[in-house]
Design a protein that fits this description.
The protein has about 220 residues and is of the alpha/beta class. About 25% of the residues lie in helices and about 20% in strands.
């Protein structure tokens, strides 16, 4: 089971997460309490192993700015959490993770409109456009809706429920942010516990490629 830790803002946490077994690190460049400067993200990335995915999170940003930041920082993937169109996603030079917020059973119909590398299924949008860290009913996701899609499922994952999420969805990767924080700060003990729980689950990776994300 692969794991992505999102909302990283310092090198110590990034390196600890990787040491614990994280496969991907996420940086937020949109309005958020976890927003990181381009300079700081670039410095962190220079210290990370080449095989670790470096994902930049953006919300309704212009293409030129996304490309500039991605190139400067050394990102490997771009995650879009706004109202970006399929054409916009396809115009970017890096692999795209497009977020879709689930508000009802019909929300997932939007998956059919996106042919980007990954589709991120998140909970209802929060204050700044990204996820609000709340889980939604995972049972509303049917195998047919995500068939032949590389899906990222976001919203409310933490060390207590990650094994259940893996059992239900059989994901390829899980991703967490607020679920490994204490009082708004990344908690290394929670990160280690989350990764251990996720990687201790051997039921995933068989249905399709899914990444779970909690903003």
């Amino acid at each position: 089971m692969k794991v992505k830790i999102c909302g990283i803002t310092d090198l110590t946490t990034a390196l600890a997460a990787i040491d614990y077994g994280a496969d991907a690190i996420g940086f937020v460049f949109a309005e958020s309490k976890r927003r990181i400067s381009v300079e700081k993200a670039k410095d962190i990335v220079t210290h990370l192993p080449k095989d670790i995915l470096k994902v930049g999170v953006f919300v309704n940003e212009v293409k030129e700015k996304i490309e500039e930041i991605a190139s400067c920082v050394g990102l490997t993937h771009v995650q879009l959490h706004g109202d970006e169109t399929p054409a916009f996603s396809q115009s970017l030079s890096l692999p795209v993770i497009k977020a879709i917020s689930v508000n009802d059973d019909q929300s997932l119909n939007a998956i059919e409109n996106h042919s980007c590398e990954y589709v991120l299924i998140d909970g209802p949008k929060g204050k700044y456009g990204g996820g609000n860290g709340l889980a939604f009913d995972w049972n509303c996701i049917s195998a047919n809706q995500i068939k032949n899609k590389k899906v990222i499922l976001a919203g409310g994952l933490h060390e207590v429920n990650v094994e259940e999420a893996i059992r239900l969805i059989k994901p390829y990767m899980v991703d967490v942010s607020s679920g490994v924080e204490t009082e708004g700060k990344k908690d290394l003990d929670k990160i280690q516990s989350f990764i251990n729980k996720a990687k201790g689950s051997h039921t995933g990776g068989t249905r399709n490629e899914v990444i779970y994300t909690a903003e």
